[in-house]
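[SOLVED] Need 3D model of a two-part complex

Original post:
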Amino acid sequence: MIERNVKVRNRAGLHTRPAAGLVKLAAKFKSDIYLVRDGFTINAKSIIGVMTLAAEQGCELVLMIEGEDEELAANELSEYFESGFGEL
Amino acid sequence: MVQIIDKKLLPKILTGEKNKFESNVGELIFKGIPSSPGLAMGKAYVLKPDNVVVRPKKIPQDKIPNEVERFDSALQVMVKDITDALEKVKGESPNVVAILETNLMILNDEIIINSVKERIFKGISAESAVIQEYDQQEQFIKKSKDNILKERSFELEHLKERLLATLRNKVISYTIPEGSIVIAQSITPTDVVNFKDAKVLGIITEAGGIASHSSILARSFEIPSVIGIKDLTWFINNHEKVIIDGYAGIVTVNPPDSSIETYKTKKAKEEDHKRELGELVKLPAETLDGSQIKIMANIDFPEEIEAAVIAGCEGVGLVRTENLVISLKSFPDEEVQYKWYNEITERAYPNPVILRAFDVGSDKYAEGMPMLEKNPALGFRGIRFLLHRDDIFRKQIRALLRASRNKNLKIMLPMISSVNEVEDSFKIIQECKKELEGNSIPFDNDVPVGIMIETPAAAFMADRFAKLVNFFSIGTNDLTQYTLAADRSNEMVTDIYDTFHPAVLNLIKNVIDVAKSNKIPVSVCGELAGNAAATGLLVGLGIEELSVTPPMILELKKRIREMKFKKAKKLAKEILECNSYIEVCKKLAIF
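Solution:
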C-alpha cells in the first residue's frame, strides 16, 4: 500500500470540474484508491465522495492506494494535485 | 417591456413586494429572477411536477432480483439520455460538456449504485432505495460550508426525481412543439440540452439558482430564462401565450394585443442590436499575432451584467459601490449591501467581479460627509474617509466578505496613497473575517484584495504595494488629474488635463512593469481603457486586462483583433520617449 500527502493548489479548490477529473483519472487504475481528510475517508472513484470532501485551496489530504498498479496510480494522481488540477 | 395594466402595481412587482398581478382581461404577470437574458414569445408547454410520495414498500424476497433489474434499467435509460445529450453538445464550450459529464458520473457512481442495491437487498423497493440513498448523499453535500457545493445538491435532487420518474416509466418526452416556452418545477442540465434541440424559446422554472448548472447552460445556449416563480406550473396551462423577459425576470401570460405590440417593438430592437454585434461576440479578444487581452466590464448596477456577458466580457473589472450610497442618499446597512453584492456575484458567476469599496467624497457626496471642502479632490475621500468612519467601512467589508462565498469576488480599495492605509485596511478585513468565522458565516478566506492606482504616490511606490496586495487596477482619470495637477472638472485647464501626457504614461508603464515582475494582475479601468486611440498603446505597454463600460466591449474587442502586439509594443516604446502629449497624439494618429 502507498500513502502520499497531497495538497490542493488551485484557488477554487476541489470543486465539481476537478473532482470529475480526479474520479476519471482514479477510475483508470485497478487499485483501490482512497482520500483522507482529517480522518474522514472517501473512495476517490466516487464523484459524490470527492465532492463531499469540500477540499479548499491549501487543504492537505492523504492519498491511500492499494493494488497492482499502485505505483503508477500514486504518481499520476499526485501529479494531478501538483498541477492544481490544471487550473494554475 | 411588458405593459402592466394597473401602473400602481408595477413598482411592487419590480421590487418583488408582489410577484403576481392579474388584470381584468386575463393577463397574468409574474416576477421572478432573471437567469438568462433575452426576449421571447411562445406557447406554454407545462411540465407538471410529479408529486407522488413513495412510502418504504416492503418487497418479498423472491421479487428482489426484479427490483434490482428495474433499477438497473432505469439507470441505463438515464445514462443513455445524458450520453445522447453529450453527443449533441460536442464542440460546445468545455464547461457545457463538463456539466453533463458530472451528471453522468454521479449516476454511474459505483458507491451509490452499490448502496442502492444493498438497500434493495434488505427488502425495499427500488424507488425507496433510490430516495434513501440520494437523500443521504444530499445531506452530506448540504453539510458542506461550500456554497457552490450546496448548489450542486439541487442537482442530486433533480437526478433523483428523474430516476424515480424513469422507474415509474414516466420518462419526460421531448416531443415539445417548436416555438414553446417550457414551464417546469425544476429542470436538469440534460433537459436544457434537449430543450435547445427542440428549439424551445424560453425556460421558466419554479426552483433554481442563478449559479446552477441549468442556468449556466441556458445562458450559454442563449435561451431566455426566468427562475424562482413559486407555484407557476399551477397558474399556466398548455398552449397559453407567454412572453418571457429574461432581462427583467418578468413573465406575462395571456398578454392582450397592447402587450404583444410592446413586446414586438422591444424584440425588434433586440434583434437589431444583436445583428449589429454580429459574430464578434463569440470571437476572442486576441491580437493578430495571438496576444490575448482580457476585456472586463465597469458596471454600476447588477442589471448591466447580462448585457456585458452577452457582449463577451470575461468578468466585471469595476463595480462602483458608491452608487448604492448615492442612489439611497445614505449608507445602506449590511444586509442591503450583502444582497446587492451577492446578486452581482451570482449574476456574473463563474466570471470574477471586482467590487471597489465606497469611493465617496470629492465630487460624490453622501449623507454624513463634510459638505464643504476647499479642495475636495485632494480631500477627505476614498480610503481616507473609510478608515476614519470605520463603522461604515466594517459594515461594507462584512457584506463583501459574505458575498465572497461564491469565490468569484475581489475587493478593491480606492484612493490609496500610502502603505499604512493598506495595512490598516487589512487589519479591519482580518477582524471582520474573525467575526464572520465566529458566527459560522461562510466567506472566501482567500478573497483577493487589490488597490486602485490613482495617486502618483501609489504609482511611484507600486513595488512596495505589489508585495502587499493581490492585484492593481489603474484609474487613469484621477491619476491624470493628480499627476498633472489639473482638475478634471475645471474647464480652464482641460488642455492641461490630458491622459496622453508622457508623465502619466510613464507612471502607468512603471505600474505595469512592477505588477509583471511581482506576478500580480494589473488592469486599466479608467476612461483611457475605452479610448479608441489608446488601445494600441495600452496593449503595447503590456496591459493584459482592460475594463470598460458594457457598450464599449465589442468595439474594444474589434480594435484588439485588428492590431499586432509587436507593432503596438514598438509604438509604446517610442511614445514613452515623447516630450509632450501633442507629440504622443501625433504618433498615435499614425498608428
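Edit: The interface with chain B takes residues 11-13, 15-17, 19-20, 23-24, 43, 45-49, 51-52, 54, 56-58 of chain A (CB under 8 Å).
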